[in-house]
Specification:
- This protein has 285 residues and is an alpha+beta fold.
- Helix content is 22%, strand content 31%.
- The protein has helices spanning 2-27, 243-278, and strands spanning 37-43, 47-50, 57-60, 63-66, 70-74, 78-85, 92-94, 101-104, 108-113, 116-120, 126-127, 133-134, 140-143, 146-147, 156-157, 162-166, 187-192, 195-196, 205-208, 211-213, 230-233, 235-237.
- The strands form 8 sheets. Strands 9, 10, 13, 14, 18, 19 and 20 form a 7-stranded antiparallel sheet that branches.
- β9 and β10 (116-120) form a beta hairpin.
- The longest helix is centred in the C-terminal third of the chain and has 36 residues, at 243-278.
- The radius of gyration is 30 Å and the shape is elongated.
- The model has no long low-confidence stretch (mean pLDDT 87).
């Protein structure tokens, strides 16, 4: 009976972990490039229950057979094994902003930070005061040759991530360029966005703001990919979170939590009745 208390308690702890993951998904439903989390549970082995007072061993010349009546199986609880990130493609949202970029397919954009290289699917960028392409937090967007220095209205990025500019208007950094005057008469390659992938993406570590960092289990970032993701300029990738699905999961988690709570209350009541029957002194009142 005591085992039933621990079984119910372990179920409640697991459901709390599920609820935390759902709450995190709902909180980041509007975060560009966010990938939803899915908890993975691990069940402890089940116990086969038999009647203790019956001699269930039947012996014969070649050996013996266990004939003890089987009562049933008892689960010993579960635990939260890991929180798995689902890297499904999120919805594409057209913004027509040349500084917005989205990836179609598996892969990440490389970002240079003070703590080293980081990786993201959040392509909401802008130019800083020095003309470098940066994230909202001011971190540099990396190309194959380092940080990208661009000029507004004087760059385009193709599906392969190659950055092009009009060389005729790129000489003077202080000269402003308008869309009307840019006729792209002298196309020049600037660089190519550093797009990477990993051998074991599931082991990447989240750092917030749609940023990931590589780990020993994920392996180092590699630029050689079987199928390089397509880059869409003027688009952003939304979070792959379905609000309706997450709300349904939240209801299921609450119901499961309540069921485990009822189990503990029932076990506690039965244990109290058992103690009162075993000790007559508790019934003298």
């Amino acid at each position: 009976m005591i085992r039933g208390l621990y079984t119910g308690a372990s179920g409640m702890v697991v459901q709390m972990g599920h609820l935390d993951a759902i709450a995190n998904n709902l909180a980041n439903v509007d975060l560009t490039g966010y990938k939803r989390d899915t908890p993975v549970d691990k069940a402890f082995p089940e116990i086969l229950l038999r009647r203790m007072n019956d001699d269930g061993v039947y012996r014969f010349p070649l050996g013996s057979v266990d004939t003890t009546p089987i009562v049933g199986r008892l689960g010993t609880g579960v635990e939260l094994n890991e929180v798995y990130t689902v890297f499904e493609q999120g919805p594409m949202k057209q913004t027509e902003n040349p500084f917005d970029m989205a990836l179609e397919g598996l892969g990440f954009l490389a970002i240079g930070t003070e703590g080293g290289e980081r990786y993201t699917r959040n392509g909401s960028f802008h130019l800083n005061d020095e003309g470098y392409l940066v994230t909202k937090e001011g971190q540099y967007v990396l190309g194959d040759n380092g940080p990208l220095k661009l000029k507004k209205n004087n760059f385009v990025i193709d599906q392969d991530g190659v950055v092009w500019q009009n060389a005729a208007l790129a000489g003077d950094d202080r000269r402003l360029v308008t869309l009307e005057e840019n006729e792209w008469e002298s196309m020049e390659r600037v660089d190519r966005l550093r797009l990477v992938d990993f051998d074991r993406t599931r082991y990447l570590k989240k750092e917030g703001n749609s940023m990931w960092v590589s780990t020993e289990e994920s392996g180092p970032a590699r630029t050689q990919m079987q199928e390089r993701p397509k880059l869409r300029q003027g688009f952003l990738e939304g979070a792959n979170v379905n609000v309706v699905t997450e709300m349904v999961r939240m209801i299921e988690v609450n119901r499961s939590y309540e069921a485990n709570q009822k189990l503990i209350q029932t076990e506690d009541a039965l244990l109290g009745r058992l103690v009162q029957r075993r000790d007559p002194r508790l019934n003298e009142e």
